[in-house]
Amino acid sequence: MSKMESMGIRRLVITMSVPIALSMLVSALYNIVDSIFVAGFSQNALLAVSLCYPIQTLMIAVACGTGVGFNTLLAKYLGENNMEMADQSVLHGLLLALFNWIVFAVLGWFFAEAFMKSFAGDEAVIASGMSYIRICTLFSFGIFIQITFERIMQAAGRPMYNMAIQCIGALINIILDPIMIFGLFGFPVLGVSGAAIATVIGQIAAMGIGIFITHKKVPEIHMDIKQFKIDIHMLKEIYKVGIPAMIMQAVTGFMGILMNYILAPFSDMAVSVFGVYTKLQQFVFMAVMGISNAIIPILAFNYGARRKDRILPTVKFSLQIASGIMFLGMILFLAFPNQLLSMFNADASMYEIGIPCLREISLSFVFAGISMILCSCFQALRKPMESLIVSLLRQLILLIPLLAFMMYTFGLQIGWYAFAITEALCAILSLILWKKIKNNLSFE
């Protein structure tokens, strides 16, 4: 009997969540280290990387959204003990990962210049940003395939291997960052391009580890390409959940792009500060995302096994843990904004904008945690549209107009409160939707 249907709920959620959360925290760490080293190189370099960050977010969103689609399907087939279809879902997931890489490689190469010129006027910033985008997209097969194998291990109930994959990739990136950026040990000084090279090398190494571990340590998964046959129905099933999940995560990238447009008229420093905030908040949000990613295969498996008695306690316990983590994160941002900003070579202007930014946005954290957990529940229980609606409201439809209105009407400092207002309203909506889904959850 699988631990998905036999292990105690609290123990199962924790054992599944902790490795994923730790691996995502490590990922957040090397994103932050990236920015710290880049900020040490120059403030123009930090601005270039901040402007490029939404593109990285979009790539990860597409990878994770596709992963959620086939991961949910894979966990369902494993719950039904349908191993042939489980293997086919894995092969389809890998095919889609390669397709996503080709799309981003083409877009990155041809549209990097236009993207940078839409936000920056400084030629040095534009050139640095173009180089960063092109390197990260041309070699993005590493991140797409890495995330695919992470989702395979989640669905198979082996999240500890995710941590190994992430940690090795992050460690390589952290070691190479100063070497490539500042030109240590005889390497040329590469600046922003060096940060991008270090990132993709770490991702490709993590991809290789993921392939090796899956082949050696996950015997129930068989990737026999000779048995592969494209199944249009399976692709539809993957994208039935995957596209809403992809859009749900991609809105973070679109939100970042729109934030650049909103903040640029105030100052370049406002753009840099928001870029710094997005890196810092990952320490808190990645822990909750670890939980939300972990419960998707748990809920999908038990949905396939028709175990309502395990679905409801999983959701309740996950909400409790996520709310606690977000509360601690809020306290951290409220109490220590100076210390957090000081890691990025902050000057007086960064402190002036950054301290109210960190404090005011952190008031949204607990509400955001509730919506994040429930959106994952909606995905796992085959209710992707509910998840999509909440995510679009949280990060685009409600947030961006409210933020622009408050900032241009009341100023930059007051405008940050739009995050807390938006997240509170979306948390209420998420709870209402969950109550409706829970009351209608039946296998009869």
Structure explained in plain terms:
The chain is mostly helical and 444 residues long. Helices cover 84% and strands 0% of the residues. The chain contains 19 helices and no strands. Helix 2 (9-41) runs parallel beside helix 7 (160-182), helix 3 packs parallel to helix 10 (268-280) and helix 12 packs antiparallel against helix 14. The longest helix has 37 residues, at 43-79. It is globular and about 60 Å long.
Q: Secondary-structure map with pairings?
A:
Elements: H1 3-6, H2 9-41, H3 43-79, H4 83-117, H5 123-138, H6 141-155, H7 160-182, H8 192-217, H9 232-263, H10 268-280, H11 282-304, H12 308-335, H13 337-342, H14 348-362, H15 365-380, H16 384-397, H17 399-410, H18 412-415, H19 418-440
Q: What form results from the Cα inertia axes?
A: globular
Please bin the fraction of helical residues: over 70%
Largest sheet: none
Helix and strand run = HHHHHHHHHHHHHHHHHHH
Average predicted local confidence, pLDDT: 84
Low-confidence stretches: none
Percent of residues in beta strands: under 5%
SS-based class: mainly alpha
Termini, distance in Å?
Answer: 23 Å
Work out the number of β strands.
0
Compute the gyration radius: what is it?
21 Å
Query: How many DSSP H or I helices?
Result: 19
